[in-house]
Every structure is written in structure tokens, then in C-alpha cells.
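Go through this one:
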Amino acid sequence: MDNTEKKGFSARDLILIGVFSVLLLLCAMITGGFLAATPTLTFYYPIGASVLAGPVFMLFISKVPKRGALAIVGIVLCILGTVTGMHWGMNFGYLLFCIIAAIVAGIGGFKNMGLNVLAYVLYSFGPMGTYFVFFFNRESWIRFMLNKGTEQEYIDKMSQVAGPKIIVIMIVGTIIVSLLSGLLGVRMMKKQFIKAGIAE
């Protein structure tokens, strides 16, 4: 029986979900963390965060091709973000776009590579949640972050570079980079992961 037809999650599935949740977060931090830490570059975090995670994302949905798996990843990322003091917009964004990505990948039974790449692009939109809140409800965003210990100087520098052009760059840049990363993941799935027996 195909994994997508099995009901519920096995202990192995849950372990893999936890491991891949951490791996996806680590990939985001490796290539995007320095951007988030720099007030004048923080809006580019979603772009940086999507650089490495494509192959990991593709391998994950190959290993756990079940409806709900990505949603659980979203829940895990949401919890980790909350514990580490991330803005609720980013945490909710990850949860929302993980669910949307799961729906899209699920349409193709998690085997349609085109839909899987699209799912990864949508997943990569998750971190944008906090920046959308910043642009459309700035006072609330600033108040929340100050309460979390963010320095006023960081927020002031961030506000100085914020503008409509930044939103466009963030969205378009994330689409392009996540698309390339997702396609790299597909290529690796076909040439490396499957050949090595890591994926099916």
C-alpha cells in the first residue's frame, strides 16, 4: 500500500517530521540568519531562508508523503518561533503556508514534481508574515518587538529602509530563489537521493 493511502502517522513518521522540521529551520538560519540580524537587510530574510531548504523539503515529502505532515511541520515551526521570541506574524505565516503547501502537494499525491516545487515556493512565503504585519500594522509590530527585547535602534534602522520597493523585492526574490532551490531538490531527488536509496 502506498504511504499516502495509510491512515495516521507511525512513530517513524513523527520522528522524521521532527527531524526535518529542525533541518528546515537550520537551512533557513544558515543562509538567512545574518540577514534577519541586520536591520537594513532583514526584509530579505525570506529570500535567504529559501536558498538551501529546497532539497530538504523535497526529500521530506518523499519520506513522509502523507496529508497533514507539512501541517505538523508548520505547528513545530510555530512553536519553536514562539519559544525563541519570533514575531507572531512569522509563526502564523509558517503555519498557514505549510498548510497551503500541504494542500498543493497533496493534489498530486506528493509525487507530482511540479506541484511539489510550487508547494515549496508557497512554504517559503511563511516568514513573510512578520514583514506584512510590519508594513500594514507597524505600531503593533513595533510594540510587540519592543516587549520581546528588540532594541529601538534596530527598529529605527529597519524603518528607514522600509518602502514599497522592498515588498516587491522580497516577494519576487523569494519566488525566484525558492523556485531554483526547489528545482535543485527535484534534480537531486532524481540523480542522487533515489540512486543512493535515500528516497523512493
